[in-house]
Amino acid sequence: MIxxxxxxxxxxxxxxxGELVKIIPxxxxxxxxxxxFMLRHIQGLPEVRNFQQWPPWRxxxxxxxxxxxxxxxxxxxxxxxxxxxxYWAEIRLGLEKSGIPVHHFTLHTDQATLTRxxxxxxxxxxxxxxxxxxxxxxxxxxxxxxREAEVVDTTEIPPARVARIVAAxxxxxxxxxx
Length: 178
Prior knowledge:
Elements: E1 2-6, H1 13-23, E2 27-29, H2 33-39, H3 55-72, E3 75-79, H4 85-97, E4 102-108, H5 111-120, H6 128-133, H7 135-148, E5 150-153, H8 159-170
Parallel strand pairs: 1-3, 1-4, 2-3, 4-5
Helix pairs in contact: 1-8, 3-4
């Protein structure tokens, strides 16, 4: 199965993914951004604002996830923001055609907390302004995300607890808390 963690930048997707790996046996993180990084080196692709605009990115994410699960089994956690409904539909349908159950979550937090998290992030310091600039895109996408995914409010919940909420909702067995 796949647990897809969606939501804007700073909502806690990467941190929650790391927590899920700790509590769900045979779980791996697939950072689908690396597919986009790979494609940036291909000559002839049109200039785009976001690599998700390239149809090969969406198809390769589906194929890579499918092959990884065929090879490794278990659970794949994909912490990836997808804010264009048509792109999500294409990915979801591709995974469904591959017979992969997908549990889609949108990690959400209030605007003030989100801004604080982005501005104080010590890891992605070079992307602060880019992340802040995309908050409006997330707000515009929230209506369809709320229909397509289970929304988990991460505002006042520590990441380990968010991971337990996600795991329980996905119906996966977790290791005992340690």
